[in-house]
Amino acid sequence: NGQININLDELSSSILLDQDPNTYNVSYHLTQYDADLNLNPLPEIYYNTIPYNYQIFTRVENNQNSNCFDTGVIDVEIYASPEANAVDDVYVCDQDYDQIVSFDFEQTIEQVLGTSDLLDFNVSFFTSYEDAFSYTNSIILPYENTELLEELFIRIENDFNDDCFDIVSFKIYVNYDCPVEPSQAVSPNGDGINDI
To answer: Cα separation of 67 and 53, whole Å?
Structure first.
Protein backbone atom coordinates (compact mmCIF):
# COMPACT_ATOMS: atom_id res chain seq x y z
CA ASN A 1 0.00 0.00 0.00
CA GLY A 2 3.05 2.29 -0.06
CA GLN A 3 2.85 3.16 3.62
CA ILE A 4 5.34 2.11 6.31
CA ASN A 5 6.73 3.20 9.66
CA ILE A 6 9.96 5.15 9.24
CA ASN A 7 12.33 5.80 12.13
CA LEU A 8 13.23 9.42 11.39
CA ASP A 9 15.79 9.51 14.17
CA GLU A 10 17.92 7.07 12.15
CA LEU A 11 18.23 9.72 9.41
CA SER A 12 19.73 12.33 11.73
CA SER A 13 23.33 11.10 11.53
CA SER A 14 23.31 11.34 7.72
CA ILE A 15 21.87 14.86 7.96
CA LEU A 16 24.33 16.10 10.60
CA LEU A 17 27.35 14.41 9.00
CA ASP A 18 30.36 15.57 11.08
CA GLN A 19 28.42 18.03 13.22
CA ASP A 20 28.07 17.29 16.93
CA PRO A 21 24.61 15.82 17.71
CA ASN A 22 24.88 17.34 21.21
CA THR A 23 25.09 20.81 19.66
CA TYR A 24 22.39 20.49 17.02
CA ASN A 25 18.80 19.27 17.07
CA VAL A 26 17.20 17.74 13.96
CA SER A 27 13.43 17.88 13.48
CA TYR A 28 11.23 16.67 10.64
CA HIS A 29 8.17 18.37 9.15
CA LEU A 30 5.64 17.88 6.35
CA THR A 31 5.96 21.38 4.90
CA GLN A 32 8.71 23.93 4.35
CA TYR A 33 6.62 26.44 6.30
CA ASP A 34 6.54 24.18 9.36
CA ALA A 35 10.30 23.56 9.11
CA ASP A 36 11.03 27.29 8.85
CA LEU A 37 8.91 28.12 11.93
CA ASN A 38 9.66 24.87 13.81
CA LEU A 39 5.97 23.90 13.89
CA ASN A 40 4.33 20.46 13.99
CA PRO A 41 7.45 18.29 14.22
CA LEU A 42 6.86 14.69 13.19
CA PRO A 43 7.21 11.90 15.76
CA GLU A 44 10.38 9.78 15.83
CA ILE A 45 8.45 6.88 14.27
CA TYR A 46 6.43 8.31 11.40
CA TYR A 47 3.78 6.41 9.41
CA ASN A 48 3.30 8.21 6.11
CA THR A 49 -0.19 9.18 5.02
CA ILE A 50 0.84 9.85 1.40
CA PRO A 51 1.69 6.52 -0.23
CA TYR A 52 4.90 5.73 -2.16
CA ASN A 53 6.46 9.18 -2.87
CA TYR A 54 6.49 12.25 -0.65
CA GLN A 55 8.81 14.83 0.89
CA ILE A 56 9.90 15.42 4.47
CA PHE A 57 11.40 18.78 5.39
CA THR A 58 14.25 18.87 7.89
CA ARG A 59 15.30 21.55 10.32
CA VAL A 60 18.77 21.53 11.89
CA GLU A 61 18.91 23.98 14.77
CA ASN A 62 21.69 25.04 17.13
CA ASN A 63 20.68 24.05 20.67
CA GLN A 64 22.14 27.29 22.05
CA ASN A 65 20.54 29.63 19.50
CA SER A 66 17.19 28.77 17.87
CA ASN A 67 17.68 31.57 15.33
CA CYS A 68 20.67 29.63 13.97
CA PHE A 69 19.11 26.91 11.80
CA ASP A 70 19.04 25.50 8.31
CA THR A 71 16.37 23.49 6.50
CA GLY A 72 16.48 20.81 3.85
CA VAL A 73 14.26 18.34 2.08
CA ILE A 74 14.31 14.55 1.84
CA ASP A 75 12.56 12.78 -1.03
CA VAL A 76 11.06 9.55 0.29
CA GLU A 77 10.27 6.75 -2.15
CA ILE A 78 8.61 3.55 -0.96
CA TYR A 79 8.69 0.53 -3.24
CA ALA A 80 6.48 -2.53 -3.01
CA SER A 81 8.51 -5.45 -1.70
CA PRO A 82 7.69 -8.59 -3.66
CA GLU A 83 6.85 -11.86 -2.00
CA ALA A 84 7.82 -14.94 -3.97
CA ASN A 85 5.00 -17.42 -3.52
CA ALA A 86 5.92 -21.09 -3.24
CA VAL A 87 5.76 -22.86 -6.59
CA ASP A 88 5.10 -26.47 -7.49
CA ASP A 89 7.90 -28.72 -8.69
CA VAL A 90 7.65 -29.47 -12.41
CA TYR A 91 7.37 -33.07 -13.63
CA VAL A 92 7.62 -33.78 -17.35
CA CYS A 93 7.78 -36.86 -19.50
CA ASP A 94 10.53 -36.99 -22.10
CA GLN A 95 8.62 -38.50 -25.02
CA ASP A 96 11.58 -38.69 -27.41
CA TYR A 97 13.98 -40.23 -24.83
CA ASP A 98 16.80 -37.72 -25.42
CA GLN A 99 16.63 -36.58 -21.75
CA ILE A 100 16.19 -32.95 -22.82
CA VAL A 101 12.96 -31.01 -22.43
CA SER A 102 12.23 -27.35 -23.21
CA PHE A 103 10.51 -25.34 -20.44
CA ASP A 104 8.78 -21.96 -20.73
CA PHE A 105 7.66 -21.91 -17.04
CA GLU A 106 4.48 -19.92 -17.77
CA GLN A 107 2.52 -21.64 -14.98
CA THR A 108 5.49 -21.30 -12.62
CA ILE A 109 5.62 -17.55 -13.28
CA GLU A 110 1.89 -17.27 -12.53
CA GLN A 111 2.39 -19.20 -9.27
CA VAL A 112 5.36 -17.15 -8.04
CA LEU A 113 3.56 -13.88 -8.78
CA GLY A 114 0.28 -14.90 -7.14
CA THR A 115 -1.82 -11.73 -7.08
CA SER A 116 1.16 -9.48 -7.89
CA ASP A 117 1.15 -7.74 -11.26
CA LEU A 118 3.79 -8.71 -13.82
CA LEU A 119 3.85 -5.03 -14.85
CA ASP A 120 5.27 -4.12 -11.41
CA PHE A 121 7.67 -7.02 -10.94
CA ASN A 122 10.34 -8.80 -12.95
CA VAL A 123 10.64 -12.61 -12.74
CA SER A 124 13.97 -14.29 -13.60
CA PHE A 125 15.29 -17.85 -13.34
CA PHE A 126 18.75 -19.01 -12.21
CA THR A 127 20.64 -22.25 -11.66
CA SER A 128 22.01 -21.22 -8.25
CA TYR A 129 20.93 -19.19 -5.24
CA GLU A 130 24.11 -17.12 -5.46
CA ASP A 131 23.35 -16.12 -9.05
CA ALA A 132 19.75 -15.26 -8.14
CA PHE A 133 20.91 -13.14 -5.19
CA SER A 134 23.50 -11.24 -7.23
CA TYR A 135 21.31 -11.18 -10.36
CA THR A 136 23.94 -12.74 -12.61
CA ASN A 137 23.71 -15.47 -15.25
CA SER A 138 19.94 -15.49 -15.56
CA ILE A 139 18.42 -18.30 -17.61
CA ILE A 140 17.06 -17.44 -21.03
CA LEU A 141 13.61 -18.93 -21.63
CA PRO A 142 12.69 -21.36 -22.99
CA TYR A 143 15.10 -23.35 -20.84
CA GLU A 144 16.47 -26.79 -21.74
CA ASN A 145 17.44 -28.98 -18.82
CA THR A 146 20.98 -30.36 -18.46
CA GLU A 147 20.13 -33.01 -15.82
CA LEU A 148 17.14 -35.25 -15.15
CA LEU A 149 16.70 -33.58 -11.74
CA GLU A 150 17.56 -29.91 -11.31
CA GLU A 151 16.87 -27.25 -8.71
CA LEU A 152 16.21 -23.80 -10.14
CA PHE A 153 15.84 -20.46 -8.37
CA ILE A 154 13.35 -17.70 -9.13
CA ARG A 155 14.03 -14.07 -8.34
CA ILE A 156 11.06 -11.72 -8.26
CA GLU A 157 11.99 -8.06 -7.98
CA ASN A 158 10.37 -4.66 -8.08
CA ASP A 159 10.73 -3.16 -11.57
CA PHE A 160 11.57 0.26 -10.12
CA ASN A 161 14.01 -0.80 -7.38
CA ASP A 162 16.09 -3.96 -7.82
CA ASP A 163 17.03 -3.89 -4.12
CA CYS A 164 13.46 -5.04 -3.41
CA PHE A 165 13.44 -8.74 -4.29
CA ASP A 166 12.64 -12.22 -3.02
CA ILE A 167 13.92 -15.66 -4.06
CA VAL A 168 12.26 -19.08 -4.08
CA SER A 169 13.35 -22.42 -5.53
CA PHE A 170 11.69 -25.40 -7.18
CA LYS A 171 12.77 -28.63 -8.86
CA ILE A 172 12.27 -29.98 -12.35
CA TYR A 173 12.06 -33.73 -12.88
CA VAL A 174 12.52 -35.18 -16.36
CA ASN A 175 11.28 -38.76 -16.64
CA TYR A 176 12.00 -40.83 -19.71
CA ASP A 177 10.28 -43.96 -18.39
CA CYS A 178 6.84 -42.64 -19.28
CA PRO A 179 3.68 -44.72 -19.47
CA VAL A 180 2.71 -45.43 -23.03
CA GLU A 181 -0.86 -44.67 -23.94
CA PRO A 182 -2.16 -46.75 -26.81
CA SER A 183 -3.54 -44.91 -29.78
CA GLN A 184 -7.31 -44.90 -30.10
CA ALA A 185 -6.98 -44.57 -33.88
CA VAL A 186 -7.36 -48.32 -34.60
CA SER A 187 -10.85 -49.67 -33.94
CA PRO A 188 -11.67 -52.39 -36.51
CA ASN A 189 -15.08 -53.14 -34.98
CA GLY A 190 -16.03 -49.43 -34.78
CA ASP A 191 -16.55 -49.27 -30.99
CA GLY A 192 -13.94 -46.47 -30.56
CA ILE A 193 -11.63 -48.66 -28.47
CA ASN A 194 -8.21 -49.70 -29.66
CA ASP A 195 -8.39 -53.41 -30.43
CA ILE A 196 -4.70 -53.96 -31.08
So the answer is: 31
